[in-house]
Design a protein that fits this description.
Pathway: Carbohydrate metabolism; hexose metabolism. With 376 residues, the chain is mostly beta strands. Helices cover 7% and strands 39% of the residues. It has a single domain, classed as Distorted Sandwich (Beta-galactosidase, Chain A, domain 5). It is built from four helices and 28 strands. The two termini are 21 Å apart. The structure holds beta-D-glucopyranose.
Length: 376
């Protein structure tokens, strides 16, 4: 299986160093080299069940993540590339950490305390995923740790005052922990020295079939949301909170991605499919189940827990078969889906949305956990 093969590969790499403890070994190898010679490291987090998650220091990207199917076969369940150059050549944020701002800010402008800030417009007229060189394209400092909770990788990055147009020097820490219960727990933290805006997320594209270049239309999605945020032609929320009931956006009962994706619906037309933020229902717990995805053939079930108020469900509409897949095929339209936990897009410009402001002296702190299991 994929997992064994990869072990062989990484052992044969020249620059293998090991930071291992008996329980949850974390393997460290070199994934590639940046044009300026900086080495990009790869850490393989493992658990006792046999799950493996590869994370590289470029973009904090999850390049590989293995999970068992109902027969216990481990396969890779995330889209990505084998080589660093492919990420550098242009990746649609495969597996990456996103910052300073997940999703779009209209016209790349926002005001804070009377001052207007101008950001890159790298998606038509709008700003997307932190700009030209967001957190998905920087080198993170990585410290592997073995905590009681599992194999942990602590990633840190300092974004200088004014970077990509954002105010304040932002110190960011993202901690990935792989537990023995097949959970990847992600903790995001940030502090600033000036008032600023922050909205961090993780951009993994999942394909639970293990056949990474196959469409994901057969996956059944559940979203714990009564409303979603309709968008305009530039995929900026209009400000309305719209009921999902009676529309293709209703995932309160699990439904396959394909079931209504081609329905005659203006919002589906604007997104080219699903590419919207769902407003998560507030449950009794503050870290409740936000979403799940189930792949009937393999039995793989992915559950997403978060304390964020929203989740961007993106059905991989812009994938077009031009990028080579890890399995030898190509990443075609809708061959992966994303469940990006976050604050709502364009919040800095929308007074009715929960605030994304961070002040000096405060700590931005959010948590998202992806849990994998199987169902017969
Ligand atoms: C956005 C999409 C975008 C994709 C890749 C998603 O988070 O919602 O509109 O195409 O990221 O950039």
């Amino acid at each position: 299986m994929g997992c064994k093969q990869n072990k062989k590969e990484s052992q044969s790499e020249m620059e293998t160093a090991k930071t291992e403890s008996e329980q949850n070994p974390i393997e460290e190898t070199i994934f590639g080299e940046m044009p300026d010679g900086t080495k990009v490291k790869k850490f393989t987090l493992k658990n006792e069940a046999g799950m493996e998650v590869d994370v590289i220091t470029y973009g904090g990207i999850i390049t590989r993540w293995t999970a068992p199917d109902k027969q216990g076969n481990y396969e890779d369940i995330v889209l990505g590339f084998d080589r660093l150059e492919q990420y550098l050549d242009g990746s649609p944020y495969f597996g990456a950490l996103i910052g300073r701002y997940g999703n779009r800010i209209a016209k790349g402008k926002f005001s804070l305390d009377g001052e207007t800030y101008t950001l890159a417009t790298n998606d038509g007229n709008n700003h997307l995923h932190g700009g030209e060189k967001g957190f998905d394209k920087v080198i993170w400092n990585a410290i592997p740790k073995n905590t009681g909770a599992g194999a942990t990788l602590e990633l840190t990055y300092t974004s200088e005052d004014g970077e990509e147009g954002y105010p304040g020097k932002l110190d960011v820490k993202v901690t990935y922990t792989l537990t023995n219960e097949n959970e990847l727990d992600i903790q995001y933290e940030a502090v600033t020295d000036k008032p600023t805006v922050v909205n961090l997320t993780q951009h993994s594209y999942f394909n639970l079939s293990g056949q990474l270049s196959k469409p994901v239309l057969d996956h059944e999605i559940y979203l714990n949301a009564d409303t979603y945020l309709p968008v305009d032609g530039g995929l900026i929320p209009t400000g309305e909170f719209r009921e999902v009931a009676g529309t293709p956006f209703d995932f309160k009962e699990p439904k396959s991605i394909g079931e209504e994706i081609e329905a005659d619906n203006e919002q589906l037309d604007l997104g080219g499919g699903y590419d919207h933020c769902w407003v998560l229902n507030e449950g009794e717990e503050d870290f409740g189940l936000a979403a799940s995805a189930y792949h009937p053939n393999t039995g793989r079930l992915l559950e997403v827990y978060t304390n964020e108020p929203g989740i961007q469900f993106y059905s991989g509409n812009f994938l077009d078969g031009t990028l080579p897949a890890k399995d030898g095929g190509a990443y075609g339209k809708r061959s992966g889906f994303c469940l990006e936990t976050q604050h709502y897009p364009d919040s800095p410009n929308q007074a009715n949305f929960p605030s994304v402001r961070l002040n000096p002296g405060e700590t931005y702190s959010t948590r998202t956990m992806f849990r994998l299991s199987t169902k017969q």
